[in-house]
Specification:
Two copies of one chain form a homodimer. Chain A is built from nine helices and six strands, in the order E-H-H-H-H-H-E-H-E-H-E-H-E-E-H. Chain A is α/β, with parallel strands linked by helices.
């Protein structure tokens, strides 16, 4: 399995969406983890539901709406200052510790690397820049131009067309199992980063490999 | 607001999907509620994801897969006997206590009533019959013929075309907020049955009314 290019999901795969817990905790002590989880859950649900409803709005809007919902649901008072502060956190999410070195090694092997994300450019571009990862990626691709979210096949098709490659030449890497399997359904070879030892989603597909972290990917690809 | 017909969601609206808790509890004491919740969560997520992937399988298959996943995720040993027993439970889910009388009253007002459900006919038909509700409904409509799940607009369009009514003539009733808002996005008048006092999903639409139970619907429609 020697993909000509590797395409990475961003949120949850390269960047830790739950890095917002500390800031949540500072506003609402004792509720940071619960808030972060509900925020993420609604954020994802609404990407799927809005896509099916054909009522796309950019990920930044979905993310903001989901934060408001999560605070309301948990009874946490949430003013403009808290919303803005937490939306800013999304522009500087921590990278998982094994990510920077893994990207250097994967790039050194001569492969083109790209990001394919639900994130609108107002969210993903500042984040990649802030974390010093711009030089790693030949392309940072967003679903925003398509106005539909993962795992719609046209999203994965965007990566193939923009990289000028056939689906079978692309390796896709995501920690979101449904995203990995959506990419597999489209025709990519996929590696699922399963940091939490979750079961495989039963969506009719299996990945080429399941890894505990991105640090294991260079070895998996060399095998 | 005087709809010519009322269309009801089934699972969670008329029938209590968490009626399976007792049976779950009998197999895995102490885990019934947690299992039922995760089972339902994955069941819904996969309807959205499979629809976007264009990899539809019938709801009975999604439900069976989600049960297997939920058991695996929680570390609960689940053999064929348990799976079959719990799938049987789905064919005789309890109705919410205020449902039978509300349906009689709504029908007595001269309206046509129908069900529009994700459930495949092998699931919904035995359930409606078992609960003695067949005579209430002029039609029991399933997404199965469309091979896409709610909240895709074509699902709500099926109800309009099969009832021979314009969208604006139809009142839609669901306890699943995203389903109510998907129907609203399509053009129905909608009533959200919010039994758990949840916040409104932020999907860009608001229902005509939000009720604590189906028993409040006849009065809301008369207002």
């Amino acid at each position: 399995m020697k993909p000509a290019a590797l395409v990475f999901d961003a949120y949850g795969t390269l960047f830790d969406v739950h890095a917002v817990v500390a800031r949540c905790e500072s506003f609402w002590p004792g509720h940071g983890t619960q808030l972060s989880q509900l925020w993420r859950t609604k954020q994802l649900e609404w990407t799927w539901q809005r896509s099916l409803m054909r009522r796309y709005v950019p990920f930044s809007q979905v993310t903001r709406d989901a934060l408001g919902y999560a605070c309301e649901s948990l009874g946490l008072p949430c003013g403009d200052a808290q919303v803005e502060a937490l939306m800013q956190e999304y522009l500087r999410l921590a990278v998982y510790p094994d990510v920077p070195d893994a990207l250097v090694r994967l790039q050194a092997d001569g492969r083109r690397l790209a990001i394919l994300t639900n994130g609108s450019s107002d969210m993903i571009e500042p984040l990649v820049a802030h974390r010093g990862l711009k030089a790693r990626f030949a392309a940072v691709l967003s679903v925003d131009s398509l106005a539909v979210y993962k795992p719609a096949p046209e999203v994965y098709g965007l990566a193939a067309s923009r990289l000028g490659l056939r689906a079978t030449e692309i390796g896709f890497v995501s920690s979101n199992c449904w995203d990995a399997l959506g990419a597999k359904s489209f025709g990519f070879s996929v590696w699922w980063i399963n940091r939490g030892s979750a079961p495989l989603d039963r969506l009719g597909f299996t990945p080429e490999g399941t890894l505990r972290g991105l640090g294991d990917l260079p070895e998996a690809l060399a095998a």
